[in-house]
Write a structure and sequence with these properties.
Blueprint (H helix, E strand, L loop, with lengths): L5 E4 L6 E2 L10 E6 L2 E6 L2 H9 L3 E4 L6 H10 L23 H8 L5 E5 L4 H9 L4 E5 L8 H14 L3
Helix pairs in contact: 1-5
The protein binds magnesium ion.
């Protein structure tokens, strides 16, 4: 068992935002990543840094290793993060395809939280059936991770260490 709970971090819809109206663009900036223009949330890096004090952060994104190639310097993270890789094709509008890799990484008992914009019923069923403490935090893709999510995650991590 790791000293800290694991936090699985999705990128699209959590850090890279989409689906917002042009006249209602959140704070952030466009960056080219592998020839694709992504709009990175202004506050995401600072929020991940706060969460890193409480969690072992792990990329859980269809970006796979591309996340480490581009994101730590853009977000101000101190270094690369462990990164899940998937042997299945991402399926838009769902994230249950990530579950097998999460199980392989964390095992059944490791406390883990997972922030993603696409939790579906399959993910909630999986979380409810996991033996270890499990928290799903679902973002909205035009907004991504916000302070409410950070507070929820830190409160949950603190609750794990209570007697
Ligand atoms: Mg996503």
């Amino acid at each position: 068992m790791r000293a800290k709970p694991v936090l699985l971090v999705d990128v699209d819809g959590v850090i890279s935002l989409f689906g917002f109206a042009q006249e209602d663009r959140p704070d952030g900036a466009f960056h080219w990543v592998n020839g694709v223009l992504h709009y990175l949330s202004q506050g995401a890096g600072e929020r991940l840094l706060r969460l890193q004090e409480r969690y072992e952060l792990v990329w859980a994104t269809g970006w796979e290793e591309t996340a480490n190639e581009y994101l730590p310097p853009l977000l101000g993270l101190p270094g690369e993060l462990p990164c899940l890789s998937f042997d299945v094709m991402p399926r838009f509008g769902s994230c249950h395809w990530k579950v097998a890799a999460i199980d392989a990484y964390a095992g059944p008992d490791q406390p883990l939280a997972w922030i993603d914009d696409n939790h579906d019923n399959g993910c909630h069923t999986w979380a409810a059936q996991r033996p270890g403490p499990t928290l799903l935090v679902t973002t909205k893709s035009p907004v991504g991770i916000d302070d409410t999510h950070v507070t929820q995650l830190i409160t949950w991590a603190e609750s794990l260490s209570l007697p």
